[in-house]
Amino acid sequence: MAGISSPTRLTGFSGTLDTESLIQKLMKAERLPLDNVQKKKQFTLWKREDYQTMNTTLLSFRNTVNNLRFEKNFEKVTATSSNTSVISITSNGTNVGTSNVTVTQLAESATLIGGVVSAKSSDTVNVSGTVTIEGALGSTDVTFTSGQSTIDSIMKDINSKSALTGVTASFDQSSGRLFLTSTSTGAKSKVNVTGAEFSSLFNLTGTSASGKDAEYTVNGTKITASSNNVTIGGAQVMLSGIGTASIGSKADRSSIIDDIKKFVEQYNSLIDTFYKAYTTKQNRNYEPLTDEQRDAMSESQIEKWEKTAREGTLYNDSILKDSLSNMRQALNMPLNVPKGQISMLSEIGITVKSDWRENGKLEIDEAKLEAAINTNFDQVKQLFVMSSSGPEVAGKSNLGIADRLYNIVNDQMDAIKKKIGLGSIDALDDSVMGKQLKELSEQEAKWKSKLQDIEDRYYKQFSAMEQAIQKLNSQQSSFASLLGG
Known about the structure:
Helix 1 (19-30) runs antiparallel to helix 13 and helix 2 packs antiparallel against helix 13. The strands form five sheets. The protein has a five-stranded antiparallel sheet with strand order 1-15-3-11-12, with no helix packed on it. It has a four-stranded antiparallel sheet with strand order 6-5-9-10. Strands 2-14-13 form a three-stranded antiparallel sheet, with no helix packed on it. By secondary structure, the protein is α+β, with helices and mostly antiparallel strands. It has 13 helices and 17 strands.
């Protein structure tokens, strides 16, 4: 029987009965309860997977809402440089201030440069020796052999140990010079070379070099740094030349408009996803396929069938319905602020679509939103981020829109997690659906064992029947021969 392991049996001795076919037909009826259990199990797996999809949708929406919960995300400050040849802005920070900067010295690496060498980098060297390379990180020895080592191979050996020394090597073929350079900048960086043969090979006139710290003043205060990448007045800047420049800042409110638009778009998308999920009914004419049914269908037929069969897994689901209901209520509740201040989304151009078929989606009057941000920026910000523990007022909220939605989404995600758990879709954990799957798996195992016993009994019964028929046929043949037949 399909899906049940059974021993190999020899039947059909009598030649009268098609035993295998008869038992298969009998077992087809016997296995109906197992088919039903497996169908329930498959539908439960689909349901759990669809819950995971809903949870992912909520998570994405929560991340978008989270950007609107904090003041720092509303008014971003962009740092500016008056002279990019002296200082360039690499990253805007928070609370960027105005600073006057004078750069008198840039941070430099330690660099040791050899004299002119006539050999090519691919030529073998004519001297053997060992050189000790020392940098800020440590020292190591590099050995070279006359007639075997080349300038290229020596460079490669030095560079292979740069993580130990903090020194890299290069040979400029066009100038014929060796360059040994520290991987870091600043006064603590260094390059030391010990080895007469190496110095002779590359015409080194010196054996050590040190780096330099950057030196600059900010609003009259002298500062030194080991790197040219520094923080000044809350902004990350790169010192790029000697001279004077000033760092200023300008407010950038365009990004918050984009964040609010994204919030509305994702809210509308969430409505579509959830509404479709809990209003789509299950088509009872399409159930999960049994193994026998799948074997009789093509891949495209199976795909088409299962697409319909798995619809309606979350029909009339309370978690999804509560999610939308609670969010609608949160969006429609005024903020608890003094009369005359912005307290509703509608006052900044965000309203519910009038067509009932849109199921409560939002739409934006972009001109009104931009005007509100430009003329009442602090009130718009407060509408989203306010978090007050002041006295409550009936019908009003002390929480901004973003925190309200964030808390609702967290609650609904927790409800889904409690129902489906945190593991894979087939995990038999302590969640509601994990326990359901565990129970169905136990029923499946019991029915498989029971059907195996039933099948074995049928084979024994039919085997006995065949033996009886064979014996009867033999007796009839003997009787016929006695009668001269």
